[in-house]
Amino acid sequence: MTALPPLDRTFTHQLHTLHKLTDRVSQGAYLADAGLPLSEGRCLSAIGAFTPLSVNELAHRANLNKGQASRAAQALVEQGLVRKAPSPTDGRGVVLTLTAEGERAYARVMAVVHQRNAAILSCLSAAECRQLDALLGRLVDHARDALRSAGELTDSDD
User: Fold this and answer.
1) DSSP count for the chain of H helices, then E strands
2) Which of 18, 44, 47, 136 is packed most tightly, with the most Cβ within 10 A?
3) Which pairs from 25-34 meet CB under 8 Å and 24+ separation?
4) Higher-confidence residue: 90 or 1?
5) pLDDT tens for each residue of 43-65
């Protein structure tokens, strides 16, 4: 019988640990290089990449809960980086887009994103990076399929 790995060697534990460690370093990079806290930087990058977005879509795209996304979006609106307009399809909803200043901040945030990704992956060879990308893609697809099968995810959630 094969022995089970200790907790700190399980995939989920290591993935969560990597997430927490990279977020700690990324928080400082977002503040220093883009002038934004991590959650606001994530929201700005999601709005820039997937514009226009509702707050619900923003939460999904930025991997935040709705409350975090709403607070970050409001902070970005108050800083003049994001425009909030009534949704043409949802009477109670809003649509978020970048302002001209938001576009410039988006470019700074994306530079941080690319620098952080390069730094995190710098311990891997180019071939290992390609392999990791393919494996992570398969794992994400597998997790989505599992949620879809359980009725907890729809195609619009992707």
Assistant:
1) 6, 2
2) 44
3) 25/116, 25/119, 26/112, 26/116, 29/112, 29/115, 29/116, 30/109, 30/112, 33/108, 33/111, 33/112, 33/115, 34/105, 34/108, 34/109, 34/111, 34/112
4) 90
5) 999 999 999 999 999 999 999 99
